[in-house]
Structure formats: C-alpha cells, structure tokens
Amino acid sequence: MVQFRSYAASEAAAFHRVRDRFGAFSNMAAGYPVRFGGVEAPSSEALYQALRFPDLPGFQGEILSATSPILAKRHAYTRIRESRSDWEAVKVNVMRFVLRAKFGAHQSRLLPVLAETGERPIVEISHRDDFWGARPEGGRLHGRNVLGRLLMELRLELAAHPIGAPLLVAPRFARASLLGSELGPERVGDIAAEPDTGPFLL
Domain NADAR: where (predicted)? Predict the structure, then answer.
C-alpha cells in the first residue's frame, strides 16, 4: 500500500490547474500528444485511460478520438466496470509508462521545467483525489501523491539525459495492448525535433 505523505505547500513544486507553472505535468494538460506503437494519443490522459481496456480495441479507439483529456476520461468512465480486472494492481505502472512516453516525446518542452523543480517535492494538488495527488489543509498538502512521486522518480532518472536523445520506454505491466497490438520497448524521440511530415493518423 502506498503511504500517505505530508508536504509543506510553500516548499513544494505544486500544481493544481494546467495553467499553473508546473501544470504541464498534469495529465489534463492539452498539447502533449504521445506516439507509441504506431498510434498517436492526443494526451497522456487518453493513453492512460485507453490502457484500461486491452480487450476492447474499438473502445480504446473511441477514447483516443476524444477532443480533450477530460473528455477522454469521461468517455472511459462510461464503461468503467469493464476495466481490466487487475487495474488496481497495474495502474501505477501504467501511469509510469505513460509519463515516460509523454516526457520522451516532449523533452525540449518538459525536461527544462522538470529540472526547474530542483530537489523540491513535486505535488499535484487535488481537493478530491489523495491517491494521485494531495489535499491542501492548513498550509500543508496531505496525500499519497502518486503522480508527484512518479514525476520525482522520472526527474532523478532523467537528470543526466541529453535533451533530444531518444528515450527507451517500455511497459512494465502485462497485456499492454493498444488497438489490438501488443506494445513493446520503443525509443521515443522529441516530437518538436522531428520534421513536419503531416498528420500522424491512427
């Protein structure tokens, strides 16, 4: 079980809304498409939600077609009871994979912001979700803050990563299937450094 943590709000690199200084770390931040396995997910949230349903490739396609991260989440929740049976056991590793794919694809935009956090704890402020985030109370942030902790893990891992060098990303969970194809290790490069070859289609 992931333990609860308490952080001093004044000492944290915290974000609540996508327009906050570190709001790009949120899965609800638009403008950070993720390409993996020949598929483009319009956001990290869309990819995360799609991976709930490895046995429903058609429904995955619907999630990936959503026009915003929040709509991708809402559409996934219309069939939430059909999530993979081991979702609670694998969801943290799914998020770990999604974050690596996102940061690998947007290194030039995201790695400098990640480095800017220094050694401060990274915390997603949430008034409702103290699993992925932490609740504010009396100048402190209380919660398991799993998203923030995964970001801190990534910060440590990528501290010496040269921006622009492809990042090896691999799912660490079984049945990592997307649109009927099993995902394997893949080198993810910076989208901003690629030549413009037109739309990348599903």
Answer: 15-158
Residues near 50 by Cβ (< 8 Å), separated by ≥ 6? 41, 60, 63, 64, 72, 76, 178
Q: Where in the chain are the domains?
A: 5-193
CA distances from 65 to 107, 144, 195, 197 (A): 24, 31, 24, 21
* Burial of residue 84 (number of CB atoms within 10 Å: 0-12, 13-18, 19+): buried
Residues 49 and 75: their CA atoms lie apart, in Å, by: 9
Determine the Cα–Cα distance for residues 82 and 160; give it in Å rounded to an integer. Answer: 40
pLDDT per residue over 154-189, tens digit each?
Answer: 999 999 999 999 999 999 999 999 999 999 999 999
pLDDT tens per residue across span 37-88: 999 999 999 999 999 999 999 999 999 999 999 999 999 999 999 999 999 9
**Which is the CATH superfamily of the domain at 5-193?**
YbiA-like (1.10.357.40)
